[in-house]
Amino acid sequence: MAQLTYREAVARGIAQEMARDENVVLLGEDVAKAGGVFKATVGLLEQFGPNRVLDTPISEQAILGAAMGAAMTGLRPIAEIMFADFLGVCYDYIANEFPKTRYMTNGQVGCPLVVRCGNGGGARFGAQHSQSVENWCMQFPGLKVVSPSSPVDVVGLLAAAVRDPDPVVFLEHKSLYATKGEVPDGEILDTLGTAKILRPGRDATILALGLMVPRSLQAADVLWAEHGIGCEVIDVRSLVPLDTQCILGSVARTGRVFTVEENPRQLGWGSELVSIIADEAFYDLDGPAVRITTPNIPLPAADALEDLAIPSVNRIVEMIRHSLSA
Amino acid sequence: MTQKTRPTAGETVPTGGISPDKRLEMYRLQVLLRQAEQRAYDLFLENKIKGTSHLSLGQEAVAAGAAAAMRPGDLSFCTYRGHAHTLARGVPVEKVLGELMGRDNGLMRGKGGSMHLTSVEHGVMGSYAIVGAHLPIACGAAWRAQYKGDSDVSVCFFGDGATNIGAFHEALNFAACRKLPVVFVCENNLYMEYTPIADVTAVKHPGGDRAGAYGLERIVIDGNDADVVYLTMVKAFARARAGEGPSLIECLTYRHSGHSRADPAKYRPPGELDRWKERDPVSIYRRRLETQGVAAETLDAIDAEIHRIIDDATKACEAAPSTSADILFTDVYADGGCSWRN
Questions:
Q1: Which range among A33-37, A257-261, B172-176, B267-271 shows the weakest confidence by mean pLDDT?
Q2: Which of A14, A101, A218, A225 is least surrounded by Cβ atoms within 10 Å, i.e. has the fewest?
Q3: Are residues A99 and A220 located together in one domain of the fold?
Q4: Which fold has domain B22-317?
Q5: ipTM score here?
């Protein structure tokens, strides 16, 4: 057992898979010699050499396209798109190429690859380096979307993503890179499509992802300590595939559900989850399903403004308390 | 093979040690592509092929010359104008026409259609309908070959229009930096969709004039001469297999039909099509073979054999059932289905 930071867990997970399978290769901007701009790939070049750990030019289409061609012909590439916002310049591969290839070729060709990105806000980087792009990615049949919130989940879900025969977008939260957690020794392999109940509760279900998970846990502590409201906090972890059973089971127990997301109000991932709950668990609900989101604005850079935009512990507490008392 | 000025098709006859068998193979391929595309066009007019289609009529020499230079195991990456390149690798005509017609005997049983022809067993690693997207993908396949020590070469075909999209430049730079075994083949048919490529491009030769930016040799060839294409490709393959890196080959050619099914190509100046038809690759090649002493009967027999193949394929497709509904939901994910939740 070791205490690892979230960023160290990324390197640990990649190293675990590269050591296991020589077909696993890593490419991206600054990932080799510099160890990544987020220092999440430190030591991999030294351990696995320049044929398996590639510094690329600032060419996001070349990065994702090359990953795809390599994946189609037998490798298991891990491609880093530094800031998730940059998926915008190579979105063709996310939208048109990776997810459709297996279907269009009637199963002849798969794209077993992982796209890692630094996702999410809180770092005061402004509107083009702070977005949460889960909703950009989860709308395409054929693509999987995962986002861990703890170091141990980073290792296990990254391993699962690398071994998965389908393309996976793996969203690492930038504001979690420095956080620490216990990570067991030895190989760690998790399962895509599994949510985790991190805290049981009988009054309400909170569905969260990434940075919103620790904030939701803190909010649950406050709601219990100060208001006697018991919240069941679920780390959704994987949007595609989605652990609907875990989510609907919890809603059936608590009768209330709150999604906490960094996606903007307009068509964030919470809207799809709330839609599923409305379709399939309507009669379990004792009140409206509530989305706690970033407002429908580009993210501002200034700390005072960004803190107002992204759901805070206090906002989560107040919205749940207000909604349950209504 | 490098030529500094626009070549004139058919005037020079490269010998280059091409064997008589190889020449007959290229003739046969060009006739096959010509007749198959004409049949596809006819089937459209009969409304037996729906959707859209982008024909290579007039451009057969590029596909035939390139395919004749490829080895089994080499990989083709094609565009939406990819029927010819797919057929040239040996994919049966019935599979291609069946796919165009949405029949169960189609190459992908109707799930891809005209713009996505793929046959892994023939090394056809896909036809890509987003302009330029497949250049980086071909780089990735070549990177795999380099990393694994495999001897195959990836060949990426694209039109002149693709040279103005970012992915073209990203791929060329990436491939040149890493000396990848990939051959980029630009089919310059003078028009990007409906617009003359010269009207929207800063250089005269959209492929060749960009090569220098990536440290590559400027190669502009007569794309209507299968022998020229073949010899140029042989050289590029040798370079790729020797670890010397990519090549960018601009093939000057012309499409006899419009951009797609919907395009009557009325934007072309009067007489242009006729002038290019005088440089028709199939006719040029036939005349050359006859000049070299190949009996007309031999060539007529090839024509007739191809005609039978196309007719048989057409009949088989017309008799084949429509694609069955049970594959609507299959092969979205590797587990075979489309479920994204438990």
A1: B267-271
A2: A225
A3: no
A4: Rossmann fold (3.40.50)
A5: 0.97
